[in-house]
Amino acid sequence: MKLILLGAPGAGKGTQAARISAALGIPAISTGDIIRSAIKTGSPLGLELKSYTDKGALVPDELVVALLQDRLKDADCENGYILDGFPRTIEQAKFLDRAVHIDRVVNIVVEDEVIVRRMGGRRFCPTCHATFHTVYSKPQVEGICDHCKAPLTIRDDDKPETVLHRLKVYHDQTEPLEAHYADIMLSVDGTRDVEVIASEILEGLKA
Ligand code: AP5
Prior knowledge:
globular, alpha/beta, 46% helix
């Protein structure tokens, strides 16, 4: 199965992608994680990517498409995958339309005010990319990743002013994709308990 997770920054795409991936046995591919890994290398490409993410702007379509194309060649993508954070523009959606057949799109709906509150508490594992929250999804040991025991960090683009800009970019450039995928889209209320949302998504995908 090939899935897309749509939703605003902080809607819970990464959180749900991890659960769907475990349940369906297909990889979750986050273009945000791919970009952050490239930034960590300190390469010229990484520095260029950082100049966009630091501002909360989208990385140009041609760069992000090339990064995704590389990742989709990996053997673990043979039986399907979950795309978390791609596509984000109509141009990226057109690339996917030409390249692959997408089975379903899950749209996680959360109001902006809830997102702004959530982002302040997000903690991120720079090693295995797991996501936690200081209130809603606490790690077993404060500040330490449950999975790989690395110290958790705060993402550079989670500063309040950057979050507001990312929300504006989402409404301007990504929200129009809801119309593009209306025929295959399952919308879920992303303001409830994480496990309740995951069950609803998995049930919806069976239908
Ligand atoms: P990316 O990493 O994709 O960021 P994003 O889409 O802005 O989404 P987030 O990762 O911030 O949030 P999420 O929806 O995954 O929520 P999460 O599960 O973490 O992209 C970063 C940047 O890279 C972009 O700004 C752009 O510059 C660039 N980029 C990436 N892809 C691109 C593309 N295709 N084209 C161009 N540029 C691209 O949850 C958030 C928090 O809430 C966590 O703390 C979590 O624990 C908590 N939480 C989750 N669910 C719940 C719940 N139900 N209740 C309470 N708390 C919850």
